[in-house]
Fold:
Amino acid sequence: MEDLEKIDYHKKIKRALREMGKLVVGQDHMLSRVLIGLFTNGHILLEGVPGLAKTLTVRTLSRVLNLKFQRLQFTPDLLPADLVGTMIYNQKEGDFEVKKGPIFANLILADEVNRAPAKVQSALLEAMQEKQVTIGETTFELDKPFLVLATQNPVEHEGTYPLPEAQVDRFMMKVRVSYLQKEQELEVMRRMTNIHYKPDIRPVLSKQDIFNIRREINKVTISESLERYIIELVNATRYPQDYNLKNEARFIQYGVSTRACIDLNLGAKALAFLDERNYVLPEDIKEMVKDVFNHRIMLNYEAEAEGITQEQIIDTILRQVPIAKG
Structure:
């Protein structure tokens, strides 16, 4: 019976991706990672220049999953109350009542999250971590599932408030969104310039389906040798000299946190499930490691001066660190 249920969920996920493909062209990597975040309860930081369908992807996903969606445009004058809500005075009742903010949704797109001041960022990240919001003296549980996808523009830095390292670490993944290929962009242009192209997007997965898929992912097995491989990758970012990474040791200021090994394990299991397997392969870990590590490895000024990136460091670590023998 369980196998039949798994096959059913795999079919539903494929149907959901087909529905999203009616509006979203390309961006398979972003779609995969957003689904992994949703199925593992992990928030995602999307980094890419404007116009790469980040908002369209999340809005379309909410329609396919029949979830409540809110897009929040972060600006320097935004206040925490604009996000979580506030107490307002009801003259008719002669008492204060709660007015809930837009954070009370299932899918939150925090657009240009680094444009908001620290207090607003903290309010968002507290909701991400605690899955609850306090307004006045009352605490409200956020509806489940609750997923935050925050965007950053990697090019423009004027008037921004970069997220502190401790807050960035709360995101399961940082996904770099790249330009479309020529044929994909041609398809987008043809669709968007055709006034008659209005696809009917139908809901495919329910909330209960999402919770059931989470349980199925929890059943995916990972061998002890691969668990130890994850720990070795994590430690290679902290103590690169112990792994004969002397050159990389010059550039790494801080390695990844304990959250990284947890998120890499979960991400590899989810990737295996999407590939219709009930066990993790080394390739799953290698495919997920950049998205999980790239916002957690802190490089120093020397690395910035020489144009060294986190991706280059991760590539070298993957070549240098062997998989432990079980």
Notes: Residues 220-320 form a domain with the Helicase, Ruva Protein; domain 3 fold (CATH 1.10.8.80). DSSP finds 14 helices and eleven strands in the chain. The radius of gyration is 21 Å.
